[in-house]
């Protein structure tokens, strides 16, 4: 069992969330906590990044924080609820740094089937698996 689980969520793979939560709740120690993390990569990989205002990014962060709060209150029992985190940066780097800083024992990530683009660039989940200091479970 794991005492500190991190779920990096992007709300693009919501069809996998029931399986992610099932795994998290089964693997969480009775006194453990489950944290949620959203990484806003809007200024990192997008051609329109210079046009994105701080107000727009703040509004996006506020909307994502509300989604995380709703998800936590609906899906995670109160006794297991950890912290909500919103970060900006490169997704896999941010997940790895955050997990290390917070002494996470397990990262559980949803991942879609790889497309042609991931053979050249690699997916966030594959990079997290290769470089994490803790256990990683990828749900498909």
UniProtKB/TrEMBL annotation:
Belongs to the universal stress protein A family. This is Universal stress protein UspF. It comes from Zobellella aerophila. Transmembrane segments: none annotated. InterPro entries: Rossmann-like_a/b/a_fold (IPR014729), Universal_stress_UspA (IPR006015), UspA (IPR006016). Residues 1-140 form the UspA domain. The gene is uspF.
């Amino acid at each position: 069992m794991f005492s500190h689980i991190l779920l990096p969520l992007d709300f693009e793979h919501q069809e996998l969330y029931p399986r992610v939560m099932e795994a998290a709740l089964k693997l969480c120690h009775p006194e453990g906590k489950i944290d949620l993390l959203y990484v806003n990569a809007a200024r990192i990989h997008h051609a329109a990044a210079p046009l994105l205002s701080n107000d727009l990014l703040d509004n996006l962060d506020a909307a994502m924080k509300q989604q995380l709060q709703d998800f936590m209150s609906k899906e995670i029992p109160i006794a297991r609820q950890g912290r909500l985190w919103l970060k900006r940066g490169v997704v896999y780097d941010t997940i790895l740094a955050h997990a290390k800083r917070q002494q996470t024992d397990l990262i559980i990530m949803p991942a879609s089937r790889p497309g042609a683009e991931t053979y050249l660039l690699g997916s966030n989940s594959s990079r997290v698996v290769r470089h994490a200091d803790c256990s990683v479970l990828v749900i498909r």
